[in-house]
Write a structure and sequence with these properties.
single chain; about 400 residues; Alpha-Beta Plaits; elongated; alpha/beta; about 35% helix; 9 helices; Aminopeptidase; binds zinc ion; 2 domains
Length: about 400
Amino acid sequence: MCQEITKIKKRVEDYSPQITGTLSDLIAIPTVNPPGKAYQECAKYLCGRLKDWGFEHRLVTVPDDKYPRYSIIGAHGDGKGSLHFHGHYDVVPADSDGQFKPVLKDGSLYGRGSSDMKGGLAAMLFALLVLRDCGFGKYGYITFSLVPDEETGGSRGTRHLFEAGLVSRNIKGMLMPEPTSGAVWNANKGALTYRITIKGKPAHVALEHTGDNAFERMMRIARSLFELRKDVQRRKTSLPVEPPQANRSAMLIGGESGSGVNFNVVPDKAFFTVDRRLNPEESLDDARTELMEVFNEHTKKGVDLDVELLQEGESSTADPASPLALALTHSVRNITGEEPVFELCPGLCEIRFFNKRHIPAYAYGPGILEVSHGPEEFVRVRDLLDCTAIYALTALRFFG
Ligand SMILES: [Zn+2]
């Protein structure tokens, strides 16, 4: 393996200007989600690169009047079972337009998406090239998917690919480059998010007794939820997570809220959100039932309310000692000299779509979670290159 490691490292260094160049190109395409801007431009760019490099691929379109969705699926090599590379090209909105002008400074590349996860995407694409240069296609098989919409739940990205039967059935393991800050995420928290709208009856403040205050009713429901939250917060995961305080199950009440039209009118409408985050030890069904019981209790008392589901995603876990996990661990050690820790991702993560189908899935990427989505998002070039080598080496090891 020593010879291969040296060869891979050398190829990655040769590709270094192209890797940072590709990342700069990607940052400059403002794939902002929501609403899903510049997806076509980005998909066209990625297809162009894949075509230039000679990798078999296909564009999948989900039509939409304003913002069509584009995913790219493809493969390199041949075989019965594949290692799957998966990544998203959408980014969260920027703090300024300047974030779409990539800047190389002190060994880091700054820009929206550099860390989450266009840097990781560039690393995965160049890992494919490095593998091809090493003659990998003759004995190993990599499938890949590049998707939009991850930042808003993935329904027209990854979920669509699975539901349309477009993801290979012979995937033996999946890797994705989320910004894991040096750790490997082999598990993720689930999410269940609702908007609750309460109806009342408007009245002039002078005739307050003739109205029905929706805000007051909302407060009563919120109070019941805060009671439930005490119980929810006592539940802790046994999996390691960073920061350690994130081990508790969570329920954010009132992330968004509002009511009424004016200070002197009894509000006829009030709304608030509940964002429930589940540890892998909890089930989505149980969490849903728990919340619905609270809403039903108030409906029975005559409260007119409407519950809208905003987001739903399952928690998931992959074996930290699977063949792919071990191949990844060894490769991280070989390239960085560090021993990676396996942690629970504190948020939703698309490894869940694969883990649910019994495909062991792991996130490991060059980015840093703390700077992702922030005004000073960056990725270190050294980490970018190391990750490129790690992905290539992991694939070599995985196919033995
Ligand atoms: Zn991401």
